Amino acid sequence: MVQERYASYSWGGMMTLWEFFIKGGPMMWPLLSCSIIALAIIIERIFALRQAKIIPKDLVEEVERLTRMGRLNDIDQLLKRNTSPICSVIGVAIKNAGMRREIIKDYMEEAGASEAYAIERYIDILGIIATICPLLGLLGTVSGMITSFQAVGGTGSESQMLAAGISEALITTATGLSIGIPVYIFYRFFIARSDYLLLEMEKTSARILEYLKGENYEVQKETR
């Protein structure tokens, strides 16, 4: 008797994924949409926020070497062959190499701000999804409890209505939290990752500017 009752609640034997989804009620559809959007953003950001894509080490080292040598034309050609965000920032410095340090720095900061927007793209959407999924689950819980209370005191089909309402309440809550928690973890991870990459871009840009307008570069330029 106990085994039969346990088997009736066994998801593996009695409930398919589709049945589980349907029992969750109408709130499962927006939760499904949120999960698909979040998954797409997570995959895209994992590939987009690689350091090798944002600040390629070999490229930066070559730019630093050419800058110390004063070969600005070679740097310009090198940057045109690359699409990394750091190239836009360095390119501004190279194009305005004849200006004062403060002016070049301002141009580089403007270019960096533009690239920062691209680096942080879509991350806020993850934050929104992480926030609303538990709320959607809570709304589904309320909907399920309303259904359950309407069936309180009934028998037969009304008892089935009570069970369906409780199932809807529990499933939507669990689903909302199951989506919201991992999405929030990725949201915080991508924020930290983008902050780190922007800081590295700033350090690299400052180093290039120092090579470009530093005393060593001026001496090399005069002797060429």
Rg from alpha-carbon coordinates: 28 Å
Q: Which descriptor suits the 3D outline? A: rod-shaped
Instruction: Give the fraction of residues assigned to helices.
Output: over 70%
Sheet/helix structural class: mainly alpha
Taken as a percent bin, the fraction of beta residues is: under 5%
State the helix count: 12
- Report the uncertain regions: 1-13, 215-224
Mean pLDDT: 84
Order of helices and strands: HHHHHHHHHHHH
How many β-strand runs?
0
Largest sheet, strands/sense/barrel: none
Distance between the terminal alpha carbons, to the nearest Å? Answer: 94 Å
Please describe the topology of this protein.
Elements (H helix, E strand, L loop, with lengths): L1 H7 L2 H4 L2 H7 L4 H21 L2 H4 L2 H13 L2 H9 L4 H11 L5 H19 L3 H29 L5 H57 L1 H9 L1
Helix pairs in contact: 4-10, 4-11, 6-7, 6-11, 7-8, 8-9, 8-11, 9-11, 10-11
Plain-language structure description:
The chain is mostly helical and about 220 residues long. It has a domain at about 30-130 and about 180-224. Helices cover about 85% and strands about 0% of the residues. The chain has helices at about 1-10, 10-15, 15-25, 30-50, 50-55, 55-70, 70-80, 85-95, 100-120, 125-150, 155-215, 215-224. Helix 4 packs antiparallel against helix 10 and helix 6 packs parallel to helix 11. The chain is rod-shaped, with a radius of gyration of 28 Å. The model is unreliable at about 1-15 and about 215-224 (pLDDT under 50).
